[in-house]
Amino acid sequence: MTHDPLRPENRTLAEALNMSFDVMSPAERKVARALIAEYPVAGLEPVAKLAERANVSAPTVLRMLARVGIQSYPHMQELLREEISERTTSPIDQYESHAGARGSADHHLITTANEVFVRGLNSSSASVPASEFDHIIELLADPKRRIWAVGGRYSGLLAEYLTLHLRLLRPDVRFVGRAESDKSLALLDMGGRDVLIAFDYRRYQDTTVEFVERAKQQRVTTVLLTDPWLSPAAKHADYLISSAVEAPSPFDSLVPSLALVETLIAGVVARLGAEPVGRIQAFDAWE
C-alpha cells in the first residue's frame, strides 16, 4: 500500500519526509536526510545531483518521492518553489490573507481560532515520527547528559519554558540567553555528552542557526524544533521536529510547538518515573 502523508493535510515536503522515516528503506532514508540537510536547495538541483548527495541511484530518489505521494521530480520542485514563497512571508504580507480569520457573522473569532489551533495541533502531532520523539526523550532523561536550550526573539520563550520544567525533574539543565555573550560562554562549556534543544521558526534568526552549527562542531547532540519549512539550522540537527504555525492572526502561532514541548516534558516524567519526586518535594520546601 502506498504511504501518502503529503496530500491529505497539505503538508510541506519536509514534514512528509520527516514523518515517513519509519516506513522508508535505508536507501530512501539517505535521500530524505540529504534533502533535509540542505532544504530546500537540494531539491531544486537535478535529480542526478541529489542522488549523488545521498550516494544512491536516481531511481531510488524517485521511489522515495513516490513513498510520500509525489509522482515526479518536477512536481517536487514545483512544490518546493511554492514553499520558498511561503517561507519568506512576513506578518505584513499575511495581514490581508488573515482578514477573514478575525471572525464573521457566521463564526465568532473564538470559534475560528479554536478550529485553527486544533488543526495545527493535529497536523503537528501526526507529522512527528514516534521513533524520533522517543530518542529525544531518552536524551532529555539521561542523567549523564547535560541539557541546553536556546531560542530566538519569540521562540526563546519555548526554550525557557522547557528549561524551567526540566530543571525540576533533573539536574544539569541550562537556558542560553539571547545575548551573544551568553552563547559564547555556553559554547566554552559544551562537549560531546551535551544535548542542545534549539527553537527556530520562520524569519529565522542567524544567531540561533550559527549557535547550533558551532555546538555541532563541538560534538554536541543537537535537536531542532522548527516550522514546516525548516530553519537553516536543520542542516546541523541530529533530530528534527516540525510543527504547524498557522494562526488566526498575522503572526505565526507557537501553540502547536508549545504542545510538543509539553509532550516532551510528559515523556521525560514517564521515563524518569519516581526519580524526580524527591527533587520536586525539596524544591517545594524551599518555596
UniProtKB/TrEMBL annotation:
MF terms in GO: carbohydrate derivative binding; DNA binding; DNA-binding transcription factor activity
Keywords assigned by UniProt, alphabetized: DNA-binding, Transcription, Transcription regulation
PROSITE patterns the UniProt entry points to: HTH_RPIR, SIS
Domain spans labelled SIS: 136-274
SUPFAM superfamilies on file: Homeodomain-like (SSF46689), SIS domain (SSF53697)
UniProt key word DNA-binding: yes
InterPro entries: Homeodomain-like_sf (IPR009057), HTH_RpiR (IPR000281), RpiR-like (IPR047640), RpiR-like_SIS (IPR035472), SIS_dom (IPR001347), SIS_dom_sf (IPR046348), WH-like_DNA-bd_sf (IPR036388)
Listed GO biological process terms: carbohydrate derivative metabolic process
Domain HTH rpiR-type: 11-87
Transcription listed as a keyword: yes
This protein's name: DNA-binding MurR/RpiR family transcriptional regulator
